[in-house]
């Protein structure tokens, strides 16, 4: 078991690195766009959240006229000052736009954006930093989590399913809230066992596969037969535990079934709650290139296809019509999905 997990861990360190006519602007309105991207903990290669952002940057580099893209990574346990320094370095080196991946950048970005009013910034997953040069790219995680919660309940053969969050924050609680509501929609009597890997301001829960593996093993032993993990790179450990114990898990952010580093355990990944961070990153870069930057909150919800559930592997094909029905209900506002978990969970 440990050896299998150890083979996956080195992949966490994978490092980076139309014009048209008519009323619609050309995709890039100026030559030499320099894009800076500051990752959250785990960086490119986390098989989840950061990789979704990297996918958007890669698409932009392929489809748009970008002179240079610079990627910088965070380290576990770093201070806000370290995040400030990373953002400041990108702005000082004339990268514009600059993208901060993750809510932990909110306070650092607020400060740095004030120092560089001519630089356009995007903050993913938070609306706490505001300003004329800040775009807030946020998602309806609760809505996507509702659908995978319904999938978990429909596929479960136990009286319990599980949820593992990386760090106990309001953002990750949105995943929990939606998941619980989706489970309850299918089976009000089914329990949702909940565990967080760390408590804020300790964000190590997003980059600790060993903690994810131990937590998942505990939930499976308590009776859960499907566990939804919203914990970045720590999901690798959850999938390993599911594989070892013959159970199933649900991934997050990217379609984790398709991640090359997870090929040995992909058969336990029932589905994934997809956040289209890649779409948000690409569209932000595209709009910056068109000189069509828009400050403020830009929400990627279910109706906008900003969140979804994965069908890779075919494990949820048989319940597809039921999930599609629930999706329509949310998009049409016939179903209201909570953003905070039930009391006592």
Automatic annotation (TrEMBL):
Residue ranges constituting the ABC transporter substrate-binding protein PnrA-like domain according to the UniProt record: 41-339
Keywords: Cell membrane, Lipoprotein, Membrane, Signal
InterPro entries found in the cross-reference section: BMP_lipoprotein, PnrA-like
PROSITE patterns associated with the record: PROKAR_LIPOPROTEIN
Record's signal peptide: 1-23
CDD domains: PBP1_PrnA-like
Compartmental location: Cell membrane
Protein name: BMP family protein
Organism: Nonomuraea guangzhouensis
């Amino acid at each position: 078991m440990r050896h299998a997990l150890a083979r996956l861990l080195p992949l966490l360190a994978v490092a980076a690195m139309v014009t048209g006519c008519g009323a619609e602007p050309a995709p890039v309105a100026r030559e030499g766009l320099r894009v800076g991207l500051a990752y959250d903990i785990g960086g490119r290669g986390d098989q989840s959240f950061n990789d979704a952002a990297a996918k958007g940057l890669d698409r932009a580099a392929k489809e748009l006229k970008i002179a240079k893209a610079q990627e910088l990574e965070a380290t576990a346990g770093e201070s806000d000052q370290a995040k400030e320094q990373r953002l400041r370095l990108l702005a000082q080196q004339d990268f514009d736009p600059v993208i901060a991946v993750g809510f932990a950048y909110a306070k650092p970005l607020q400060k740095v954006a004030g120092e560089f009013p001519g630089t356009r910034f995007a903050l993913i997953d938070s609306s706490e930093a505001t300003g004329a040069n800040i775009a807030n790219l946020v998602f309806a995680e609760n809505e996507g989590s509702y659908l995978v919660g319904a999938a978990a309940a429909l596929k479960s053969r136990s009286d319990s399913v599980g949820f593992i969050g990386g760090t106990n924050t309001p953002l990750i609680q949105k995943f929990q809230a939606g998941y619980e509501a989706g489970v309850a929609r299918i089976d009000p009597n089914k329990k949702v066992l909940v565990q967080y890997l760390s408590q804020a301001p300790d964000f190590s829960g997003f980059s600790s596969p060993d903690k994810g593996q131990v937590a998942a093993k505990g939930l499976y032993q308590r009776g859960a037969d499907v566990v939804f993990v919203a914990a970045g790179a720590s999901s690798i450990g959850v999938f390993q535990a599911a594989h070892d114990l013959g159970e199933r898990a649900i991934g997050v952010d990217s379609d984790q079934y398709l991640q090359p580093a997870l090929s040995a355990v992909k058969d336990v990944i029932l589905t994934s709650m997809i956040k289209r961070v890649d779409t948000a990153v690409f569209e932000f870069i595209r709009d910056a290139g068109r000189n069509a930057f828009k400050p403020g909150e830009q929400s990627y919800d279910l109706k906008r296809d900003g969140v979804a559930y994965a069908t890779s592997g075919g494990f949820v094909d048989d319940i597809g019509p039921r999930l599609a029905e629930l999706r329509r209900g949310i998009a049409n506002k016939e179903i209201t999905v909570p953003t905070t978990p039930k009391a006592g969970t």
